[in-house]
Amino acid sequence: MLIPIETERLILRPLKKSDAERLFLLDSNPEVMKYVGVAPLTRPEESENVISHIQKQYEEFGTGRFAVIEKSSGLLIGWNGLKFNPEKVHQHDNFYELGYRFLPEFWGKGFATESSLPFIKRAFKEMNLDQIYAYAHCENVASNHLLTKFGFLEKGKFLEPDGWCNWYELSSENYLENCKKE
């Protein structure tokens, strides 16, 4: 069972069908989708399909992207979480990947950091993973900065249809080392 996580300003919980409208706001926004490598959604029902796919990941892998709910407004402002990725990306397959996406009006407020840290901790402390991965478009300065801030190490670059991406790895050893610094 996937247990919601509460932080100072956020509730992180599994996505529900009722999140489709807010998820569509996110995934149909060209600014949000600029560095994602897929076109913005054009029909609200596509968000329902995304949620169904994520819910299937919950069942199959016990993890997946979570809704990020701002406590003060009660609104879904984005998503974050660990996803099991069986597809081949930068010479890897069958890996756990940290990912996040937020509506532009919530950028630069620390929500990506606040919502990522519990998932990183969960990966190493509860799931006992040896490493997790992430990738970000080379031009996405904010995401690249955030990943290195968490202790992810750049391990190469790979070409996506929309441009070059940085490939990152965070080992449990690096995670524990970063924890000692804080």
Briefly summarize what is shown.
With 182 residues, this protein is α+β, with helices and mostly antiparallel strands. The protein has helices at 20-27, 30-33, 44-61, 111-126, 141-149, 172-181, and strands at 5-6, 10-14, 65-70, 76-85, 95-102, 131-137, 153-160, 163-171.
General description of the model:
The radius of gyration is 16 Å and the shape is globular. Helices cover 36% and strands 30% of the residues. It is of the alpha+beta class. Helix 1 crosses helix 3 (44-61). It starts with a strand and ends with a helix. The chain has six helices and eight strands, in the order ββαααβββαβαββα. It has helices at residues 20-27, 30-33, 44-61, 111-126, 141-149, 172-181, and strands at 5-6, 10-14, 65-70, 76-85, 95-102, 131-137, 153-160, 163-171. The strands form two sheets. A five-stranded antiparallel beta sheet has the order 1-2-3-4-5, sandwiched between helices. It has a three-stranded antiparallel beta sheet with strand order 6-8-7.
